[in-house]
Structures are given as structure tokens and as C-alpha cells.
Request: fold
Amino acid sequence: MDIEEFYDADPRRRPSAEIELGTEWHDAHGSRYEVNWVEDTGELYVMREPVPHVNEDPFGGIHPHMRSAEEKEMTVHVVAQIASHDQLHQILNGWQAAMAGDGGAEWLAERLRAAGVATGPGDPISDDAVEVDPT
Reply:
């Protein structure tokens, strides 16, 4: 779902305080995530940006681009249910360093699973609709 659908799905979300836990999380595939916690619902959600395609021209120039359909693919997923501000900080202690490193999104997913707060089966930050370009 997109961010507007996310907020519209629960009337407690829009007026709630939110804590932003970084906008530069990356996974092993290069996808970028923004992570936020909604105080009134206890939801930790990620907004995932699609990975741009990169073409190299014959002169060595690098040209990242996205197809117009992909620009609308920023998706929101609730990945955890965390009851309190204190619990949030306890579970995600060290998130700033993890976000800055390689595999930050995988670190986040593992922390949520280890704490028993991850929502949904399997990898809570995976997106089955994502098509990975093999080139």
C-alpha cells in the first residue's frame, strides 16, 4: 500500500506522534527504506523505495533511471508491533550505526524477530511484488 492508504486505513495514525528511525536503511539488493514508529498504534513501518535501474553509455557515463510505473511503487509495510517508546529504544538500541552500515535492513529485521515483535511470516521487510533486475 502507499502512504496515503496506510494513514487512511486507521484513523489513529494521522494525528499520532511518530518517531523517525532513519531514512537511509538499505538492504542487500540496494533498496532504500525509511523506518518510522507510530505511537498511538505501536506500529513500526517501513517505506520502501524501488531500486533505480542504471545504464552505462558507451562513453562511460552512468545514468540511473526509473520507469514511470516504478516511481509510484514506494510501498509501506508494517513490520512490527512495539508497545512503548521504551521498548522501541530497547529493541533497536544501536540503530543509527546499523543503518549506516551494509545490510542495515537485514539487521533491523533480525532485531525485530529476536525481540518477538515482527509482524507477518518470514522476512517482515520482503516485498513479494518486487521484481529484481538481474543485470
Observations:
- The chain has five helices and seven strands.
- The first strand starts at residue 18 and ends at 20.
- The two ends are 27 Å apart (CA to CA).
